[in-house]
Amino acid sequence: MSAFSxxxxxxxxxxxxxxxxxxxxxxxxxxxxRTNAMTAAWGGFGFMWRRKVAFIVVRPQxxxxxxxxxxxxFSLNFFGSGQRELLNYxxxxxxxxxxxxxxxGLSVAHRNGGPYFPEAETVIICKKxxxxxxxxxxxxxxxxxxxxYPAKDYHTLYIGEVLSILARQNAAxxxxx
Length: 177
Fold this sequence. Notes:
alpha+beta, 177 residues, Pnp Oxidase, Chain A, 6 helices, eight-stranded antiparallel sheet, two-stranded antiparallel sheet, 10 strands
């Protein structure tokens, strides 16, 4: 396993559309010394409040939500396209029912107060800045509400300041030029 190199957010040039939307990520957070994680395919990166940020959304019924709510940090862990089985597992089994991290064989490390998985290709550690639950009446275009929230179980939006980006050599080679 190759070591991570830390990169500046300005040097992070991998497509979020590919990483998040196609390859997916594990969102990890810690509560009372225990780490939990879930698979996600919605989120993004940008610039807000004069800070480089990542944003994620989590539904209220997800066990990981209480870990994110209890923590000041969270991490986004990207494993690349060859780890669909791992990501499916973390997306379909609840941490309420079993220790997904131990069962998966992943290990947990910490950086800037946030837990992450050293087995990932790319890791983004974020300091939580903002959280707000979506509300149905706020949809300007009603179609996403109709398509994605038939049970009205609206996501909570979390915005986190990017504290660290860690990438392996093979992940750094994916950078777009």
